[in-house]
């Protein structure tokens, strides 16, 4: 027993992730934390997407279940769990059964290396970003097998579209990622960041963020506008990779009913839903890590020092207090009818919880620990909002347009970008070489 | 830049080796015995993923990641893409034929004999070498061997391999498109 407590407490002084430190207990705790956090994020996304989309289209969205439809996701989840689980008679039973699990496994496994903070990741791998790209590329297998196993026309067409689309955009995505990885070891250009310290680059997610810290620039601003273009390519490709609007051809409602998951119902369908949203969070966290400085707060170098640290440490608490204030504003706007009394009380309770979280996060000891996670989550949340915004704004691409954008625009741009990034980064060496050639 | 130092020794190595090896062998057998081509492809994916696990056990995480990324996530998707367009009902009815079983047996026996020989007297066949684990810097080690200014001994063969792929791509385009 004493050994066990020693084992558990031995991690506290460590400046490594639990996986790298080899501590099974804390690794398990972190896995559970990430899993619970993701599930809550997916539930919140479900509500937010319907609400934001509705407001963009001048509708109210869900209003019935709970105040402002806050309990709607829970009601949906219960409905899905209670629904009959149908397997079509002509379907390939085994493959039909396995497919949702492949998708969910791929979507959740990538979070093993997502760095929420310098030590707040489950583990740190030497191959971090490759691992993320590799495992998330497995999810297409689940989609393809799901579409095929349904033994039905619409799912099969959806699966075919999905595999063609995901394989095409993976290439452009990879090129953008490679140019960001190159930046970890290349020397910056004057105003845009200082020199890299090491000679070797890195693929580790945590070291990529550390490199941005050392070079005092987010990679989106490095070699301006090269970093920005790489980020744009990734931002387009990641929407296509997650099958979201305007690239949602595999599940285009107007043409294919629901695409590859037409024949799925109940719990299995909810697995696809869960996987789609956690895949969105996963690719967003790749983008945040590679280009937007991961867990770093804004201006960690320009606005350095004790005063700024204290000012920025108020942000997590203030955000939740602001959310609580908005909730109480809406409590005041609730109808004064006796039938709405319970709803009003529920909303006030929700606001109180948000405010309480805000107050707790204002305590310096706690805010210093959650700060990194807060900034990372805030950046990812911005991407989640963008996803909803795209869906509310852009019409769906035609399939030939989709292929044209992927192969004729993004891929050549990515290739040129990669060469330019390497060339700008190695300008001194190239200059030396040219001088040696011309002087001999 | 602090490379991750493995503080704990690897655990249950034989267990994981036999698990992955068994997964690979079972996957491989299923690939050739299933009549349904999609099931074969899924079995092949299992075998390839188990192989990635074996690379991990050999302290080569970079190779393992590339294995997952390229084979399981890329090539097998294209395989499935093609297989899905085949009418499974027809292939299920067809009898599996194997007209080259004699050559197959000879090749398998030769390969098996080679493996058994290497396994039984491997120590005397190979020179004593000093093996260094490069787990924390595996990617850098691979890059050094490929492109390093003094250590890049495989650069030529690497470039030749990429040329081969280029020829294959151009060949595919020429054969698929009648008019370019």
Give a description of the structure.
The complex is a heterodimer of chains A (440) and B (180). With 440 residues, chain A is mainly α. Chain A folds into 2 domains: 22-78, no CATH class; 83-296 and 363-439, no CATH class. Helix content of chain A is 68%, strand content 0%. Chain B is mainly α and 180 residues long.
Radius of gyration of chain A: 24 Å
Outline the biggest β-sheet of chain A: none
The best one-word shape of chain B is globular
Kindly provide the name of the CATH class of the largest domain in chain B.
Mainly Alpha
The tally of structural domains of chain A comes to 2
Termini separation of chain B comes to 50 Å
Uncertain spans of chain B: 1-8
CATH level-3 fold name of the largest domain in chain B: Four Helix Bundle (Hemerythrin (Met), subunit A)
Largest interface by Cβ-Cβ < 8 Å: A-B, 42 and 34 residues
Q: Evaluate the radius of gyration of chain B.
A: 21 Å
Question: How are the elements arranged and paired?
Answer:
The complex is a heterodimer of chains A (440) and B (180).
Chain A: H1 2-9, H2 18-21, H3 24-56, H4 72-82, H5 93-109, H6 128-137, H7 139-149, H8 153-183, H9 205-214, H10 226-241, H11 253-256, H12 266-291, H13 306-313, H14 315-333, H15 341-362, H16 364-393, H17 399-425, H18 427-439
Chain B: H1 13-33, H2 37-57, H3 61-83, H4 88-93, H5 101-120, H6 122-125, H7 138-147, H8 155-176
Helix pairs in contact in B: 1-2, 2-3
């Amino acid at each position: 027993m004493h050994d066990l407590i020693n084992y558990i407490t031995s991690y506290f002084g460590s400046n490594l992730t639990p996986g790298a430190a080899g501590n099974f207990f804390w690794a398990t705790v972190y896995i559970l934390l990430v899993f619970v956090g993701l599930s809550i994020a997916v539930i919140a996304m479900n509500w937010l997407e319907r609400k934001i989309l509705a407001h963009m289209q001048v509708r109210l969205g869900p209003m019935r279940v709970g105040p402002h439809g806050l309990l709607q996701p829970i009601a949906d989840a219960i409905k899905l769990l209670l629904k009959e689980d149908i397997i079509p008679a002509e379907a390939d039973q085994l493959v039909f059964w396995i497919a949702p699990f492949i998708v969910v496994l791929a979507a959740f496994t990538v979070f093993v290396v997502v760095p929420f903070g310098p030590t707040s990741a489950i583990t740190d791998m030497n191959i971090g970003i490759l691992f993320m790209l590799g495992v998330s590329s497995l999810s297409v297998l689940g989609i393809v097998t799901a579409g095929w196993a349904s033994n039905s026309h619409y799912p099969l067409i959806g699966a075919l579209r999905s595999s063609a689309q995901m394989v095409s955009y993976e290439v452009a995505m990879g090129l953008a990622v490679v140019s960001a990885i190159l930046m970890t070891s290349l020397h910056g250009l004057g105003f845009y960041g200082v020199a890299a310290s090491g000679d070797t680059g890195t693929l580790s997610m945590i070291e990529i963020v550390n490199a941005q810290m050392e070079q005092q620039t987010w990679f989106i601003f490095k070699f301006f506008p090269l970093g920005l273009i790489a980020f744009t390519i990734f931002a387009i490709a990641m929407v296509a990779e997650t099958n979201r609007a305007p690239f949602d051809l595999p599940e285009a409602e107007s043409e294919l009913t629901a695409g590859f998951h037409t024949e799925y119902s109940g719990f299995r369908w909810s697995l696809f839903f869960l996987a789609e949203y956690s895949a969105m969070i996963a690719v967003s966290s790749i983008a945040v890590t590679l280009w937007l400085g991961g867990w770093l707060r804004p201006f960690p170098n320009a606005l350095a020092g004790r005063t700024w640290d204290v000012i920025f440490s108020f942000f997590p608490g203030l955000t939740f207090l602001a959310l609580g204030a908005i909730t109480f504003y809406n409590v005041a706007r609730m109808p004064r009818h006796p039938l709405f009394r319970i709803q009003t009380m529920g909303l006030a309770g929700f606001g109180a919880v948000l405010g309480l979280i805000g107050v707790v996060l204002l305590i310096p000891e706690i805010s210093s620990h959650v700060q990194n996670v807060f900034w990372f989550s805030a950046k990812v949340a911005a991407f989640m909002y963008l996803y909803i915004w795209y869906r509310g704004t852009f019409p769906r691409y035609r399939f030939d347009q989709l292929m044209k954008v992927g192969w004729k625009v993004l891929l050549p741009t990515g290739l040129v970008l990669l060469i330019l990034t390497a060339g700008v980064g190695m300008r001194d060496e190239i200059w030396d070489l040219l001088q040696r050639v011309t002087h001999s | 830049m602090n490379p991750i130092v493995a503080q704990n020794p690897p655990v249950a190595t034989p267990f994981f080796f036999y698990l992955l090896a068994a997964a690979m062998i079972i996957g491989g057998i299923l690939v050739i015995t299933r009549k349904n081509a999609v099931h074969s492809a899924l079995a092949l994916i299992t075998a390839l993923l188990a192989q990635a696990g074996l690379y991990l056990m050999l302290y080569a995480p970079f190779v393992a990641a590339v294995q997952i990324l390229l084979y399981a996530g890329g090539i097998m998707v294209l395989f499935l893409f093609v297989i899905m367009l085949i009418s499974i009902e027809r292939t299920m009815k067809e009898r599996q034929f194997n007209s080259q079983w004699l050559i197959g047996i000879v090749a398998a026996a030769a390969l098996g004999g080679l493996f058994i020989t290497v396994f039984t007297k491997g120590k005397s066949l190979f020179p004593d070498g000093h093996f260094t684990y490069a787990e924390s810097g595996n990617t850098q080690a691979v890059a050094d061997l490929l492109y390093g200014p003094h250590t890049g001994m495989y650069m030529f063969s690497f470039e030749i391999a990429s040329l081969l792929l280029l020829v294959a791509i151009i060949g595919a385009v020429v054969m698929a498109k009648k008019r370019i």
